[in-house]
Design a protein that fits this description.
Elements (H helix, E strand, L loop, with lengths): L1 H19 L4 H9 L1 H7 L13 H4 L3 H20 L4 H15 L3 H6 L15 H27 L4 H14 L9 H26 L7 H31 L1 H13 L16 H15 L4 H14 L11 H31 L4 E5 L5 E5 L2
Subunit structure: Homodimer.
Cofactor: Fe(2+); Fe cation
GO molecular function, one term: metal ion binding
């Protein structure tokens, strides 16, 4: 027993030493050297405010419609929203809460060495990206929140409490000061968010539940997330070019710890965050808004983008081990998908009804 505790403690120390090695000056110099490249290839992915959509463009606007027009538009919105299944409503809440937890995300980027916005108004390309990205992200929670409020399908007080709890409780951040690790995480996460919103748009739209307004909102948010994904994928791709050994090891480090949604600590006030998050993941899997298959496909996509399998020059022994791990991981995840399906078929588990307070305690069917 004592031996296992000592071994675990050594693993923790080794992990800390691994990511802290990325704070060495020669590693961080890479980030300083590519700042002109960020100016040229990343900042243009932000849209000028004047060219950006705003929540009022996607929802009834009393100033534009007048009192009677606004009332009629809201009644139509509520009529369409009434046809959206409860499972998708729960997924929509989780998507919205993820967006409303925005204060945690720029603070995470501002932990990263070199790229952080040290004064809140730095003129570096890195700092301007962080602020511009945050400004674009800020609209996402706003538009989803307003839709939910107007639709009448949600207990908004319970939803708002969930947002407050999540921001209070925070998120798990691995290697919190390393840009290599941070950008690997955000590239993955932005693609995951784009997929979740895109899937939701498809499922609630004309070919699904028939709520065209909500489909347009989710699709518009997904398009933003795709642009942001492109930015972080480019940044990480540049790091793979500049220091492939560091980049592939950082990516493997993050994947070994699993890329969880930022809502991993989501809490409805009744259950522990871990229990509730597991239930939400099961609901999202069943509804089709975000699945284990999506997770695998994101990994495969990023590996193709960064040409992980093709890396040869510049890899240390640890780098080659990281490369081997990453190249084998999609197959392992695929086997997990197949085994989970086989277990469910053999076990013939009966679903459990879980009341969800976001939708006035209406029960959702979840397979444990």
């Amino acid at each position: 027993m004592a031996g296992r505790r000592q071994e675990k403690k050594k693993d923790i120390v080794d992990e800390a030493e691994e990511w802290r090695s990325y704070l060495a000056s020669e590693r961080l110099e890479v980030l300083r050297e590519i700042e002109p490249w960020v100016e040229e290839h990343v900042l243009p992915l932000l849209k000028p405010v004047e060219a950006s959509w705003q929540p009022s463009d996607l929802l009834p606007d009393p100033a534009a419609l007048g009192s009677d027009g606004f009332h009629a538009a809201c009644l139509e919105l509520r009529k369409r929203a009434a046809g959206v299944p409860d499972e998708l409503l729960v997924c929509l809440v989780a998507n919205m809460v993820t967006e409303e937890a925005l204060p945690m995300y720029p603070s995470g980027l501002n932990r990263l060495e070199v790229v952080r916005d040290t004064t809140g108004a730095d003129a570096t390309a890195w700092a301007r990206w962080i602020r511009g990205w945050s400004a674009e992200e800020n609209r996402h929670g706003d538009v989803l929140n307003r839709y939910m409020h107007l639709s009448g399908r949600f207990d908004m007080r319970e939803v708002e409490r969930t947002v407050q709890r999540l921001i209070r409780d925070g998120i798990t951040v691995h290697a919190p000061a390393s840009p290599f690790h941070g950008f690997a995480y955000v590239a993955f996460q932005e693609r995951a968010t784009a997929i979740a919103h895109g899937n939701t748009a498809r499922l609630v739209g004309a070919r699904g539940a028939g709520d065209a307004a909500l489909a347009r909102i989710c699709g518009t948010v997904a398009a933003d997330e795709k642009r942001h994904e492109a930015a972080y994928t480019r940044i990480m791709g540049k790091l793979f070019e500049a220091d492939p050994d560091a980049a592939v090891r950082a990516m493997a480090y993050m994947m070994r710890r699993r890329i969880d949604m930022p809502t991993a600590f989501i809490n409805d006030g009744r259950h522990s965050s871990g229990d509730f998050y597991a239930r939400f993941i099961a609901i999202a899997e069943k509804a089709g808004t975000y699945t284990l298959s999506d997770y695998r496909c994101i990994l495969e996509h990023l590996m193709r983008q960064w040409r992980v399998e093709e890396l040869t020059a510049g890899l240390s022994s640890d780098g080659r081990h990281a490369q081997d791990y990453l190249c084998a991981l999609p197959h392992k995840i695929k086997r997990m998908e197949e085994k989970a399906h086989d277990r469910a078929v053999k076990a013939k588990k009966k679903p459990t009804l879980i009341p969800i307070n976001w939708i006035f305690d209406r029960p959702i069917s979840v397979v444990p």
